[in-house]
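Z., the sequence and structure:
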Amino acid sequence: MEKVVAQEVIDPLFLKSENEILTRFIEKELSKSGVDMKKESLTHLEKKKLVATIISALINLILIIVFKVFHYPTFFLLVLCLVNFIIWLKFTVSEMKDFFIKEIKMRPDESFSDIIAPQLYDRCKNQRGLRLFIYVGCTALIPLLMFWSSHIFYEDGPGGKYVRFYTEGFFSEDNVEIPQMIDGKFVVGIRGDVFKNTSIEFVKLPDNIDTIRGHAFENCENLQTINLPKKLKYIGGYCFAGCQNLNLIDIPESVGEIGGYCFADCKNLDKIVLPEGIKEIRGNCFAGSGIRKLSLPNSVERIGGHAFEGILLDTLIVPESVKSIGSSAFRDCKNLRLVIMSEDCDCSERAFKNSPVKIQYY
């Protein structure tokens, strides 16, 4: 006689994970109470989510303002905003069922009804739409309105107003024109880093400006033309470094000091005329620029190290006024064939390193 083996039928529900099983029971319990989990939530949960949303959205807004004012690379802004977005999701994706799963695990000896029912008196509408509006508003809408067009900010300083900050607009032209007067005061200077790393192409400065601080236009790769005022006295270090498309610049005779690296890596700058009155050309001032024609004024007394490294001119006449030439001042000038200079000049033996040059003394 054959034996009949009875097979036990296992409820598929119990093949699921613990959280999935608890979720099923919680949904049934909430359904009995007429709760729609897609539309409803618990007040204290929504408050936490709303606070997290406001904090996260404000962080994004502050980051965008800081990056626009100081012209930091957009890539880093996107990374920081993405990290902030992930953190925001972590604090706001939890639902009513997640809260009850946690409570049930913490109170294993109590029934579902005793855990769930008291909490349902504190029900409120799910504010998912409001949170999304706040987040998108602070991350996109407000910045769009704030930076729709470009803005120039000024501050008081010695003798008048100084340009302090510049923010690029999302839908403005890449031309900058600084007015002669602001609030009844002349604009007399530009602070450091003001236009650094921006996409400006043309700049018009008023005649009153006498000072342009360091890094003011550094890495403005699209900058093609800028007029330097006739009263300009000082151009700071790195001021136009990395302005690869700057092809024309006229340095006024009023300029008495040019900082180091000022025109470094200005690839299209093929001609420069230095005014009489310049006594020192600082280190790396024109290194890596595209200069092919160079005229040194008779006022120059010292040429700093690496000042003209890598430029393209073929002949150089050094005025008798030049008393010293620093190390690597004309290094890697592959086209430089002839240098005419005074025997009294204290020229570093490494001044023309890697340059196929013949020196002729007078």
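The chain has a mean pLDDT of 89. The longest strand covers residues 160-167.

Let me know what you think.
H.
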